[in-house]
Automatic annotation (TrEMBL):
GO terms for biological process: peptide transport. It comes from the Bacteria. This is Oligopeptide/dipeptide ABC transporter, ATP-binding protein, C-terminal domain-containing protein. Residues 8-260 form the ABC transporter domain. GO terms for molecular function: ATP binding; ATP hydrolysis activity. The lineage of its organism: Bacteria, Bacillati, Actinomycetota, Actinomycetes, Micromonosporales.
Length: 326
């Protein structure tokens, strides 16, 4: 496996403190390797986005990081903990080293500014030595790279389709050539054909430019298609992590199996969609033991009282389940 670019160690993130506080991300350990696409899946409320915003310190109050480290390995120089950076170091880290494409990003372009202004503003803020001509040239190049004719530089967001606006956002994330791009449900608002076009193009760009991707979605079928590895989250914890093909062929955790059974098979014979009974746990009243036990068809004795830890297996997978690890 290639070198790590980000190592998340024992990360804990919550909302609020004291009696009113809830733990949204619990003891997460996760490594993103150079050049890989790491998928993060789970239902709404499983902690995926909180993990992404926590690791980049983008969480707004009452979000609070209560423990852990996020070690970033730059291309040159020594690794450092993102959670210990000063505000000015953090500003440089964002965009230059790591960029995020947010949920509903296609609606987050400023409606009163042309695309050109919005792309070149990022360069103005982070590359002050660049001339205006250089900034415009880079912005045109980025638009071309994401499949938009550079003459759309003068368009306003409302003059572009949803898919084009999303491509502009991806171009903006890549404009400073970061090492890591975090995509948080980047194509949820688009139709299936457009989703696949955009994600296919992103993977092509990753092969050309060499960045790594953390791709967050509740749609496991997209991850199976576009990721190298997948981590499944439930109740703020990683419950299974494995190569994408292994999850698709033979998921081990009952929750991963439930997620897989919630969408039609990409290949092979048709199968009945089963879904997962019940709802994700309330963070304020997390079930004891394995937090999935009230919904798990396989729950047995220890599940309701003892928390299963994520255990590494010899086949390059990790699972947190008493059934698998006993
Ligand atoms: Fe189900 Fe028990 Fe495994 Fe949790 S630990 S997923 S309840 S079998």
């Amino acid at each position: 496996m290639s070198q790590p670019v980000i190592e998340i160690r024992n990360l804990n993130v919550g909302y609020g403190l004291g009696d009113q506080g809830v733990r949204a991300v619990r003891d997460v350990n996760l490594t993103l390797h150079r050049g890989e696409v790491l998928g993060l899946a789970g239902e709404s409320g499983s902690g995926k986005s909180t993990l992404a915003y926590g690791m980049t310190r983008l969480l707004a109050p009452p979000g609070v990081i209560t423990g852990g480290e996020v070690i970033y390995h730059p291309e040159q120089g020594d690794p450092y903990d993102v959670l210990s950076l000063s505000d000015s170091q953090l500003r440089k880290f964002r965009w230059n080293e790591t960029a995020i494409v947010f949920q509903g990003a296609m609606n987050s372009l400023n409606p009163v500014h042309k695309i050109a202004t919005q792309l070149t503003d990022v360069l103005k803020a982070h590359e002050p030595k660049m001339s205006e001509t250089q900034r415009n040239a880079r912005a045109r190049e980025m638009l071309k790279l994401v499949g938009i004719a550079p003459d759309r530089m003068d368009a306003y967001p409302h003059q572009l389709s949803g898919g084009m606006r999303q491509r502009v956002m991806i171009g903006m994330a890549l404009i400073l050539q970061p090492q890591v791009v975090i995509m948080d449900e980047p194509t949820t608002a688009l139709d299936v054909v457009m989703q696949r076009q955009i994600l296919g193009q992103l993977i092509e760009l990753r092969e050309r430019l060499g960045f790594s991707v953390i791709f967050i979605t509740h749609d496991l079928s997209l991850l199976v298609e576009f990721s190298n590895r997948i981590a499944i989250m439930y109740g703020g914890r990683i419950v299974e992590e494995a190569p994408a093909s292994a999850i698709y062929r033979d998921a081990l955790h009952p929750y991963s199996k439930g997620l897989l059974g919630s969408f039609p098979a990409l290949k092979g014979p048709r199968r009945e969609l089963t879904g997962i009974p019940g709802s994700p746990p309330d963070l304020k009243g997390m079930p004891s033991g394995c937090s999935f036990h009230p919904r798990c068809p396989k729950a047995f004795d220890p599940c309701g009282s003892e928390i299963p830890m994520l255990e590494n297996r010899p086949d390059n997978r990790s699972v947190a389940c008493w059934l698998v690890n006993s």
